[in-house]
Amino acid sequence: MLQNYPLMAYIRYARPKIYSPGKVTVVTATYNRPQVLREAIESVRSQTYEHWEHIIVSDGRDPRVESLVESFGDARIRVFHTSRLPTMGNYQRNVALLYATGELMLFLDDDNIIYPHCLQTMVQGFGSPSVGYVVCPIRYGDTVKRPGPGFRYREIDLLNYMVRRTLVETVWGQRVHANADYLLIRDIARVSDGVYMDEFIGHHR
Fold first, then answer.
1. Which helix (H) or strand (E) holds 90?
2. Fewest C-beta in 10 Å: which of 21, 102, 153, 189?
3. Exposure string (b/e) for 145-159, b if CB count within 10 Å is 16 or more?
4. C-beta of residue 55 within 8 angstroms of C-beta of residue 76
5. Cβ proximity of 168 and 105 under 8 Å
6. What is the distance between the alpha carbons of residues 94 and 136, in angstroms, rounded to a whole number?
7. Is 50 exposed, middle or buried (0-12, 13-18, 19+ CB in 10 A)?
8. CA pair distance 163, 176, nearest whole angstrom
């Protein structure tokens, strides 16, 4: 929380905000895994829905990550880095809010992938301004995660989840906490309504 508070206070109260309607900001925190990161990026570039940006935040500067992003030659993919700060990617995901311009957010870990229809499917769930988040099932290793309303801890993963960026900012982003993923989703569910769909959209590997 001590690391997050100044950053999130600036994002909430001082930073000029851009929320491009219908645009999805895909956020990937990464550390020392350029090979699997390549597969994550390729899965984003394969999307049938094209109104996206991919913000990658490296825990510590990594020239391999910078070279990888540059090799795609795709202006929708941008890379940033923090000082080395091992917080399981939680702080790095909040840093991505500094650069995000999308109305919606999807969190994609560097070793996971999304299926080509993922963004198209989930964006369709935001059919009303009252919908704050959309949840879809995912493959989770050799099993599945198919959360429903009233989900509990360990029943949902960040990859299940697309959310309006304003809500991530409203709940002060991710905490620096071992259960930060669940706490973020739980806190947003307390202040917003969600839609639950039945199409698998990715694989947590």
1. helix 90-96
2. 21
3. bbbeeebeeeebbbb
4. no
5. yes
6. 23
7. exposed
8. 20
Q: Residue with structure tokens 């700060």?
A: 85
pLDDT tens, the chain, 205 aa long: 556 889 999 999 999 989 999 999 999 999 999 999 999 999 999 999 999 999 999 999 999 999 999 999 999 999 999 998 777 789 999 999 999 999 999 999 999 999 999 999 999 999 999 999 999 999 999 999 999 999 999 999 999 999 999 999 999 999 888 899 999 999 999 999 999 999 999 999 9
- Identify the residue whose tokens are 């198919």: 146
At 48, which amino acid appears?
Answer: T
Using a CB cutoff of 8 Å and minimum separation of 24, what contacts does 11-15 make?
11/94, 11/97, 11/98, 11/169, 11/173, 12/169, 12/170, 12/172, 15/98
This prediction's pTM: 0.96
